[in-house]
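Q: Sequence in, structure out?
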Amino acid sequence: MHEREERAHFHMADVRHKRITARRAVAVGELSAGAEAFALIVERRLPKGDAMTMAEIAGLQGAKNASQLMPLCHPLPLEYIDVRCEPVSERHAIRVYCEVATVARTGVEMEALAGASAALLTLYDLTKPVEPALSFGGVRLLFKEGGKKGLWLHPEGMTDAERAHYQPRAMARLESVKATVITLSDRASQGEYTDTAGPLLVERLRELGADVDPAELHPDDPEPLAARLIQLTASGTHLILCTGGTGLGPRDRTPEALAMVADRHIDGIGELFRNQSSQHTQMAWLSRADAVLIGTTLVIALPGSTKAVAQGMDILAPVLAHALNMAAGGGHA
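A: Exactly. Output:
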């Protein structure tokens, strides 16, 4: 009995501590109709009526009711659904697309797949009186966007027409951006513990294509940090990420170091970090995360914990490339 109870235990994924972000997913599938039935579908002459229009309506209903069909699927307030039926004459097939978007803590892949599946089933239902030898399949995601991982593309790829229509948005990369990471910690600089936040920032920047050396490690002294920032700016560094020294402790003085050398303050970056991080913990409002421009060099101060750094990069990475472009004199669009 105990073994059976263990196997029967299910639970929805706990998304309470995930950040709310914009989410989008597009699913696709095809109905193979055969030459005769394909012509009747496209010419809208099926006995039951216009199959493609009804399938698009059914796809909307399928996406909206995904959580009722799949017990562990989170019910989500969907903000956009678009279902399209596209005839493919060379295969005598109807290709169905379902695009779903919302702003939530979890993705909308299942809603997109449910919408595409409902549309295909409806095409099947309306077409079977004239052609019982129907088949449909190939139901899969084209791509999904949002959340911590950003853009995911299916390995089977997309056609040029699909890519042009849906325009999947990858995170802007930092190719050719010269960056430096500085960890501020008295204890780490004295060898009392191993810095992990700085190496994580280096790793995340390299994933975005930035040119960055291993993290520098300095004690929590504002004057030497200010001098180092001036040196890096003069050497052509475009982006400097500092970790540590943004709390309320007596030695937390990183924002003061930035203020010593700042030409302009960028209040919005600190506000963005605190606002988004507060979805994980209310303690985020105590952070003094900050950002300034020294000439055209963008300097950002993040908290010192590895977890906060990881969350900070999830939050800030989407805006870094545009911020650097603007600082260098590029456009605002």
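The radius of gyration is 26 Å.
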